[in-house]
Amino acid sequence: MDVFKFGFVALFANSLLSLSLAQSGPDFISCKIDAGLKGEKGDRGHPGPPGICECKPTDNSENERGDSASRPSKTTCSNVPASDPKPQWMGENELESFKIECDEAENMTCIAHETFSQKSILVKKNFTMQKQSFWWSTFADHSLKNMYGLRSTQIMWLHRLANSASQVIRIRGLDIKASSPEIIQSIVQLLTWNDVAIGFYPTSKSLFHYGVELPTSCTEKNSTTEPCEYVDIIMKTDMVGRLPITDIYFKVNLMEKDLKISVENIKLCFN
């Protein structure tokens, strides 16, 4: 038998064997494994190490109303019913929120006092001129806007809500005596939010003007020689776009001594 015939016979025999195995049934070609029944549950293992959390708790706080820095009130204190808790945060949204205090006596919404900062400057005496004039923002290198702790967008949002505004600025270091508080007119002018300079008296440029309040300790002794410890400059207006004050113009006497002048915002309220 030659090689070709032998190969053909081998191939035919292999085909017959495969067919025979396929017809012999599944018991011939498969094996069923019995896994048996499940055993009893073992004892609990030892606890693992505690997890590590990189997150930090939020500094957010809320009042009884549920107002918080992330959920600020969008209304002034005067629009909250008397029986409801007063809001502690205001703002157009979370990013624009700021802390407030409700002045129930005057029914005003006031910027929280903790938001304000104080700034002092030292003005050296100058023998070449009797009076020296300067803007606070230029000399102090620190604008009043920064001292309020509010952004311009937050103040303008308050302007849209409110119908009136008031502000108290305390100035230390001026030579103001209880016997003549009106002398401040020649020493201090204020620049309003809408860029108008105002003084102690109304002028042809603006009927809006500020008032002055001296500490009780100064008015009681009624000294004509000693200056008061400080002077409070008070402003109230129904034109909310005037406040807060953005700058102060000083004209002071520097021939006698150095002056240490400090400015502090005491109160800034809207209604």
Question: How would you portray this structure in words?
Answer:
The structure is a single chain. By secondary structure, the chain is an alpha+beta fold. The protein folds into two domains: 61-114, no CATH class; 116-270, Jelly Rolls (Sandwich). It is 18% helix and 25% strand. The chain contains six helices and twelve strands. Mean pLDDT is 80; it is low at 24-31. Pfam families: COLFI. It is found in: Secreted. Residues 56-68 have a biased composition (Basic and acidic residues).
List the helices and strands and how they pair.
Elements: H1 3-22, H2 26-29, E1 89-90, E2 98-103, E3 108-111, E4 118-123, E5 131-135, H3 136-140, H4 144-147, H5 152-161, E6 165-172, E7 188-191, E8 197-198, E9 211-213, H6 216-221, E10 230-237, E11 247-253, E12 259-270
Antiparallel strand pairs: 1-2, 2-3, 3-12, 4-12, 5-11, 6-10, 6-12, 7-8, 7-11, 9-10
Give a quick precis of the structure.
The chain has 271 residues and is of the alpha+beta class. The protein is built from 6 helices and 12 strands.
List keywords for this structure.
elongated; 8-stranded antiparallel β-sheet; Jelly Rolls; single chain; 2 domains; alpha+beta; 271 residues; 4-stranded antiparallel β-sheet; 12 strands; 6 helices
Sheet with the most strands, sense and barrel status: 8 strands, antiparallel
CATH architecture of the largest domain: Sandwich
Specify the CATH class of the largest domain: Mainly Beta
User: What coarse outline follows from CA principal-axis ratios?
Assistant: elongated
Output the structural class.
Answer: alpha+beta
Low-pLDDT regions: 24-31
Number of separate strands: 12
Please count the helical segments. Answer: 6
What do we call the CATH topology of the largest domain? Jelly Rolls
Number of domain units? 2
